[in-house]
Design brief:
Length: 553
Amino acid sequence: MNTRHVIELSPSGKTFEAGDELLLDAMLASGLSVPFSCRRGACGSCKVVVAEGQYRARQLAPNAPAPCYPLAANEMLLCQSHACGDMRLEIPGWSLDTPALSVEAQVLSKCALSPDIIELVLMPDLPLAVRAGQYLKFRLVDGDSRCFSIANLPAEDDGRLVFQIRQVRGGLFSEAVLGDLEAGDVLQLEGPFGACTWQDVDDSPVVLFATGTGYAGIKPILLSALKRNVEVTLYWGGAQPADFYDRVFLDQSVIDHPRFHWHPVLASQGRVQDVALGHGHHWQVAQVYACGNGAMIRQVREQCLDAGLPAHRFVAEAFVPSGGAGTQAPTPAFDPIWEKIGPRYSFDGMLAARDQSIRALAAIASRLRVGMTTGEALDMAAEQLQAMGASHTWHPTYIRFGADTVRPPREGIDRQRRLRASDIVVVDLGPVWDGYEGDYGDTFVFGDAPLHLGCTTALHEVFDETRDAWLRGLTGRELYDFAEQSAVAKGWRLARNLAGHRLADFPHALFENKELADLDIPPSEMAWVLEIQLCHPTEPIGGFFEDILMLDA
Ligand SMILES: Cc1cc2nc3c(=O)[nH]c(=O)nc-3n(C[C@H](O)[C@H](O)[C@H](O)COP(=O)(O)OP(=O)(O)OC[C@H]3O[C@@H](n4cnc5c(N)ncnc54)[C@H](O)[C@@H]3O)c2cc1C
Ligand code: FES
C-alpha cells in the first residue's frame, strides 16, 4: 500500500502529500513551485533543511553515479529522497509563491524635491524582494513602459517604494501621468530588474558616480555601503545647485559616518570622473558604481580602468530615455514546444542575470591563485556567488585545471589537483539571480604556454563564427555541425557532448530539456546557451566558452 505522508513547508505552513515517489516528484505534482534542475543530486537546487521527520535515500540503478552535491547533516535533496513519515522542511532562499513579474502599487505620497524632480512613494500589493540598485518598469496604458530606480531599501522601509523622477517635457509618464497622480491611485509595475546592485563582496573602498536622477539608483547602494565600515565617496554631477536635491541627507551622513564624503560637481566646474581621478583613490582595490547618462558611464569606465580599476569592479546602469523610437526590447516570439518560458520570464531579467554572471566569473577568475586546489577554488566560487546575491545554482559550478579541462562537466574531477604557474583553467557558472538563470563560462591561461594561448584564441574564434552563423538563420543542429568544421579547421576537436541548452526564468527544468545541437529550428534570441568545448587532438588540453545567444552580445 502506498501510504501518504504529509509534508509541511516552513514557515509558510503549506503542505503536500508524498508516498513512495521521490519528494521532488510529489511536490511538483502538488503544483507548488519547486527549485530544481539536474534531478541527479549534482546541482543542489532542490536542497532543503529537514526540520522534522525521517526520509530514505533513493535507490540508485547499478553503475549510476552517486549524488555528489555536498550536504550539511540537516540537509536533504528532494530529487534523491523519499519520505518515511510526515515531515517538516524548510527551503532556504525560496518563495513558494512564484514571484510575480507584475504587481500593482498604490500611491502613498508625491512631493517636489526640486523644481523638476518629484519624489513618488508607492506601496505594492505584494512585498517585493529588491536588491539595492534595482529598478521597476511602470506600465503605460498603451502597453509601453518606463524604467525608474527604487531609491530606497524597501525591506527597511515597511515595503514602501520610493522613486525620484525628473519631469521631462512631453514625457508620457513623468509629465502626463505623474502630474495627475494622487494618493490612492493605482499603478501597474513590473520587476524588479537590474544588475547594477550592491555587490557586498569585501571591504573595498566604494566610489559612487551619479548624474542627475542617476542618484536614485545610487542611493540604495550608498545606504548599503554606509552600513559597512568602509570608505565611501560619492561624486554627483548636476547642471545647477537644485539638482543636488538630497543634499540635507548627504550632509548629515557625512557627520554620522566619518568615512563618507560626497562632492557635488556642477557641469560648469568639470566632470565627475575628472574630480574623482584628481582625488587619487586606490583604483586597484576600489569597487565603483555609476548611474546616470550613458556618456558619463562610458567615460568613467574608461578612465577608471586606465587608472587601474579591474573591469569586474565597475558596475553601472545607463538611464537611457525610454520614449522615442525603438528603445523597447522586442517581444520574443518563442517556439511553443521547445522554447517554453515561465511566468516571470523577461528580457530585462535575463539580461541582468547575464551581466551579473559575467561579473561573477571575472571576480572568481581574479581570485584563482597558483597552488590552490580545485576543491579550494570551488569553495571560493561558492562564497563569491553567495556574496553577490545568487540564490541557487541551477547547475553545479565547474572549475577544471590542466588535464581536467578536456573532461565533460558530468565526469568527476580531481579536487586535489593544484593550479600550476603554467596552466589552463575552465570556469563554468550556472547561478540563479532574482529568479533568472545565468550561465556563463570561459577559459583562463596562467603563464604563456603557446598551446594554452592557442586554445583560448581558437575557442573564441569558433564561438564567434558559430554565433555569426546563428545570425544567418542556422538551426541548432546545423550550428554544431558548423562549429565542428570551424574547430577542425583550426586544428582542434569540438567536444560534441557539450551541446548547448535552454535558459529561462528558474527553473527551466520544468520544460522540455532539449539540447541545442538537437534543435531542428533556428534558436530564438535569449532562450538558448551556445556551449563550445574544444580539445586538443593529442594533448590533454581543453577550453570552454559559453554565452546566451543574443543579438547585441
Ligand atoms: C534602468 C533605468 C532606470 C532609470 N531610473 C530613473 C530614475 O530613477 N529617475 C528618472 O528620472 N529617470 C530614470 N530613468 C530614465 C527614464 O526612464 C527616462 O527618462 C524615461 O524616458 C522617462 O519617461 P517619460 O515617459 O517621462 O518620458 P518619455 O515619454 O520617455 O520621453 C519624452 C521625450 O523626452 C525625451 N527624454 C526622456 N527622458 C529624458 C531625459 N532624462 N533627458 C532628456 N530627454 C529625455 C525622450 O527621448 C522623448 O523624446 C531610468 C532609465 C533606466 C533605463
Ligand atoms: S540536486 Fe536535486 S535537482 Fe539538482
